Amino acid sequence: MTKKHANTTTMESAPAFVEEAKTKPVEEENFEYTNLNNALLQAKKIDGVKGYILKSSTSATINLEDESKLTDYALATSAIMCSSQNIEKTFGAGKVENIIIEAKKTKTLCIFKGEYKICVFMKKETNHSDVLDKLESKNPR
Q1: Domain span holding position 82
Q2: How many angstroms separate the CA atoms of 125 and 127, rounded?
């Protein structure tokens, strides 16, 4: 199922990769998801932030400046998430918390917050710490 509001698309479907199932009351999950999405909406106001993908085990919210690249961003996000699992297993590095990928003109910040996976896309010169601060101030863990 897909819901669309302005530049935000919410998808509810099976996850692209399977993790160990954890049960949580629906109200609690929705509250946390809503808090994270609200924090991301605030972070999107930071100059240079192009958009984000917020993913839980049951749904995803995609908010991008350029929706014509939705598939590209979704595929990149999925690849990054799978790579983080490989890093954890291969190197015994422990739980990956954040990943920053910098290219010539862009930067992607991936955040693993409990069962939620977040990718924020921005211009390279954008301070990713500002995004992290927005998320921590809205949903401390």
Answers
A1: 2-14+25-138
A2: 6
- Domain count across the chain: 1
Q: What is the pLDDT of residues 4-50, one digit of tens each?
A: 555 555 544 433 433 333 445 556 668 999 999 999 999 999 999 99
The predicted pLDDT at position 6 comes to 52
Residues 77, 80: Cα–Cα separation, whole Å: 5
56 located within any domain: yes
- Give the global pTM: 0.75
Torsion, Cα 129 55 37 43, to 10 degrees, reads: 20
Decide if 116 is inside a domain. yes
CATH classification of the domain holding 115:
3.30.450.30
Q: What CA dihedral angle connects 131, 46, 9 and 137, to 10 degrees?
A: 40
CA–CA separation, 61 and 47 (whole Å): 21
pLDDT in tens, 84-133: 888 888 888 788 889 999 999 999 999 998 889 999 999 999 999 999 99
User: If 0-12 CB within 10 Å is exposed, 13-18 middle and 19+ buried, where does residue 139 land?
Assistant: buried
Give a yes or no: residue 20 inside a domain.
no
